[in-house]
Design goal:
single chain, mainly alpha, Cytochrome Bc1 Complex, Chain D, domain 2, 12 helices, 47% helix, globular
Amino acid sequence: MPRMSHVRRLFGAAIAAAAIVFLLTASASIDAQAQATLQDGVFSDAQATRGQALYAQRCAGCHGPKLEGAQAPPLAGSAFTLKWRREPLSALFIKIRYTMPPTVPPGTGAPQLTPEQGADLVAHVLKTNGFPAGKTDFAAADATTSRIGWPAAPANETAPTVAARFAPTGTLNQLMRGIFFPNSNLLFTVQTRDPAAPVPPPDPAAKGAGFSVFEWGQGIYTGWPVIENAAAALADASPWMLTPGLRCENGRIAPVTEPDWIRFTEQMVSVAKRGYRLAQTRNQEAVAEWTGDLSDACAACHSVYRDVGGRGRGANPLAPGVNPARCTHR
């Protein structure tokens, strides 16, 4: 299962040609997973009825008796739909089952809802939002890995946007090294170390070897929240790659309007959000397996825009170590 040697290659100077072909194929398979949508009747009326009774007991006090929102956000309507549309239904299940009701800090104890209760609540939420019922229940057994998706947004629906008010400070290279590289490597450590395990004592032989920001950071924020934080950072920082005026290290304007660039960015957001939800389950095996998707998402973009060379496009004699072809489509 460990893929650390591959990870080092991924963030190293280059990726072997054979690995690129493999990773692009794997990446394409992520996009190609056309599964059922909420319009296909993925829950039953009986399940929604059970969820309604449970909701009245456990959830209505915060989210309102009609899911309209009160102390907590609404679970019905356009605001709810816009928040969850870009993630599979499993994300909503994980949020409900593993983090609700929030009477104790997340990750400090066992989930307060059984898998079946979580699935019943999802069914109630879906029915309240107008989605059709089917003949069978939304299965709790595989709810955390389900790829059931939301239907396409209506043509007249637009998500709220916020205009960029500040020009980028750094380059794309600095954004990668400052946010994506450290947080990705924190996530890859789940392959070999359980975040819930006690932090091992420092190695006496390494004393005086130098300051490690990773050890310092995880000495303050420990356990699964570190993994959640890293995944959330990737998801929320990825749209910065679409910021107008962002430049690459070689001085080129990042191709923020190119379809492939946009697609790779959206894929990273989707993959990172998936990792964030899986981290909430505290399942090391599931998160370790997911890091393969993260690796593939990085490699797909790198192979087209980063690992490009041998064309001598606009070489800069003042910066011979900078790849002059980066940020141009392969």
